[in-house]
Amino acid sequence: MILFNIILALHFIAFLVFIIQLALLFPKENKVLHKRNILIGVTILLTGILLVVLKYPHINLYKIIPKSILFLGISTFCGIYSGKSVPTKVFYLLFGMAVLASLIGIIKT
């Protein structure tokens, strides 16, 4: 149980850092993603996978699958635009996907 909580805390912190980085870029005209966003995205994916593995028989696949697809999309966009200027529509898409993934994660069912 302690291992699960530690991994959950790492998952939350990585996601929070990613959202904060996007929020800091929001008012800027030239939005450039930092190269560490790839590391943060991979951390979110790996900790999410570890959380599923640790909780395996009692998982909600209807929450896990959409979140995983959203995180793969976010990681793909971060990989494409790492160190480059991000178009405004792609930035809004990234931010929207991240917020949607967080809402899926916290909704009780």
Spans of at least 5 consecutive residues whose pLDDT stays below 50 are none
Biggest β-sheet strands, sense, barrel: none
- Fraction of residues in H or I helices: over 70%
Number of helical segments with 4 or more residues: 4
Distance between the termini: 22 Å
The shape, in one word, is elongated
Calculate the mean pLDDT score and round it.
84
Q: Work out the oligomeric state of the chains in this entry.
A: single chain
Could you tell me the number of beta strands?
0
Beta-strand portion reads under 5%
Domain module count = 1
Helix-strand string: HHHH
From the alpha carbons, calculate the radius of gyration and give it in angstroms. 14 Å
Structural class based on helices, strands and sheet pairing:
mainly alpha
Structural account:
The protein is an all-alpha fold. The chain has one domain. Helices cover 75% and strands 0% of the residues. It is built from 4 helices and no strands. It has helices at residues 2-25, 36-54, 61-80, 88-106. Helix 1 runs antiparallel to helix 2 (36-54), helix 1 (2-25) runs antiparallel to helix 4 (88-106) and helix 3 (61-80) packs antiparallel against helix 4 (88-106). The longest helix has 24 residues, at 2-25. The chain starts with a helix and ends with a helix.
Descriptors for this entry?
109 residues; mainly alpha; 4 helices; elongated
Topology record:
Elements: H1 2-25, H2 36-54, H3 61-80, H4 88-106
In short:
With about 110 residues, the chain is mostly helical. It has helices at about 1-25, 35-55, 60-80, 90-105.
